[in-house]
Amino acid sequence: MHFSHTIRFTAVCLITPFGPLLWSGLAAQATVVTVGGQPLSSEREGFVRVGSVVELPEDSLRVVVQDIGERRIVVVNFRNGNRDQVGRQGDGPREYRNPGRLFPGTDGRPLFQDGRSGKLLRLVENGRGLDELPLDPRKFGSRPLLLGVDQAGRAVIRADGLDGSFADSSAVLSWRPGDEQPAAFARLASGMVTTATGAGGRVLQRGAVTPFAPAVAHVVLPTGSIAVVSSVPYQVSTISPAGVRSAGPIFPWQPIPVTEAERVELAQASARRPQPQAAFGATSAELPRLPSEPIPTTKPPFSGPDPVRVAPDGMIWVAKNRAADDPVPTYDLFNRDGVITKVVRLPEERVLLGFGRGVLFLGRRDPATDLVYLERWPLPRR
Questions:
Q1: Any idea what the Cα angle at residue 355 is, between residues 209 and 80, rounded to 5°?
Q2: Scanning 32, 86, 219, 236, which has the fewest C-beta atoms within 10 Å of its C-beta?
Q3: pTM, to two decimals
């Protein structure tokens, strides 16, 4: 069951050569949809932490799960609750140590990147095993990052470390598995920051790790375009496969004060979260802040790991920050023009993990055990 109403965003618009600086003088309407009722199906056994869920093309009730808590890939059957691990954990061929986000790949075969080795792995038919898709560092860089897969099965990869260097920006490549050469079509910020200069002038680098800090997420649309989702300013821009850039309007946002409740919540979340092992396959938004660093006084529109997901219809779902005492998860839905057309409110203690054929895959956190239970919900249509 879904309930809906309409809200308006109103602000003055200033047009520049780089696009609009504030959302238009005419009010933009967004439908607010509240997801209610009961899930279509749910799993009885919980996970410690789940990163993403993808449907198997052969059976909509069998899904592939990125089990972050156990650092493995499993197939879950919603009919009987069975779980089957896919592949093995290790450093050999077709093995992995730290599986990243799952994407529907070529012919719908789920694809992911191993966070330890950086190699791409693709599920074979019915999730019975894995194929390995090696990435030549001469073509993809020494630290390639899989950003997503388009509807034609082309992987979009940020080539960090290409030519042995770590610049402020990296080439973005489009590559169909099996093709000899990838095609470069854009450049994006590399996600690396300088932290210190070592002996002999060597520059040490690491990914940004600040919580509640302004974030930029890079996601791949079904067309192969890249959506660059910025929290400050709150805006979605796109880069087409031809390299054409376009900027959507900037939306107003009321910063949320960071209170002691948020600090406690952050400490609890950091304690639950396994420590990342490497930069491969990491999200392009920031990881949790180190405890010794100061915490900002306000929250931006979004932050944290994996705050942005793309639905099969091309809608961009952004998980909005909220106050610690606000129990309702809320997502802004941007269309391909960067306009918020819908706001979706999920049931309490839920998080979006993926999309299926006409369904949402949500994770329900049990406050008593802190375990996450998978659920299938109908996709809001209004």
A1: 110
A2: 32
A3: 0.85
